[in-house]
Amino acid sequence: AMLRLRFLTWDVKDTLLRLRQPVGESYAAEARAHGVRVQLAALGQSFREAYGAQSRRFPNYGRGQGLSSRQWWLQVVEQTFRLSGVHEDRVLSLMAENLYRDFCSARNWEVLPGAVETLSRCRQRGFRMGVVSNFDNRLENVLSQCNLRHHFEFVLTSEDAGFAKPDGRIFEQALHLGGVPPEQAAHVGDDYTRDYRAARAVGMHSFLLRAAGQDEELEVPPEHVLPKLSHLLALIEK
Fold this sequence. Notes:
- This protein has helices at 23-33, 40-57, 69-83, 89-102, 115-124, 139-145, 158-161, 168-178, 192-201, 232-236; strands at 7-10, 17-19, 109-111, 128-133, 154-157, 185-189, 205-209, 225-226.
- By secondary structure, the chain is of the alpha/beta class.
- The chain has two domains: 7-16 and 112-237, HAD superfamily/HAD-like (Rossmann fold), CATH 3.40.50.1000; 20-107, Haloacid dehalogenase-like hydrolase (DNA polymerase, domain 1).
- Strand 4 (128-133), helix 6 and strand 5 form a beta-alpha-beta unit.
């Protein structure tokens, strides 16, 4: 039977947008621009360490702990470079500001294949749509710069919501913003726990974007799996 869906919510990172290059390469380019020498491999590892430590200490961009997401990210960038052996405060803060700004733009993000066509077709079929993303408040701007913002009625980030997926409360806020009951909404995302299972736990339908061979052992019925974004409408209208 055809699902009686009225509303679709979307994850962003690795569902609609992806980074153009690994984070370490962006950081390395910034270092080169300032004549700072660092090993590319070290930067990638340092970023993972700095980001992990900051996320544990200040979950969800420090929301509720007195940090702005901007301060949160500036600290991550500076710590990434410190762990890679850069210790000059003036150049650290300059590089951090530049990278914070660059990750807000289409310079560092690209739209995934099939995303524009799929979003356009969903809107043509009359679906209303919103974004539910574990992201900071730059996301509106990122989506605008990548020319996707106009597809969505709202952009709900974990920073705005005060809760990060898989916490069901971010999905409940999205349903409230959309004005629909959960059974008339579906979430589309690439993460089994944060997207697929979390949306189902609040009573929404859910579709998992998943490349072939990825996590096949997880319990997801085939009619909920998207090998490509472009398969979405066929699954909804089955």
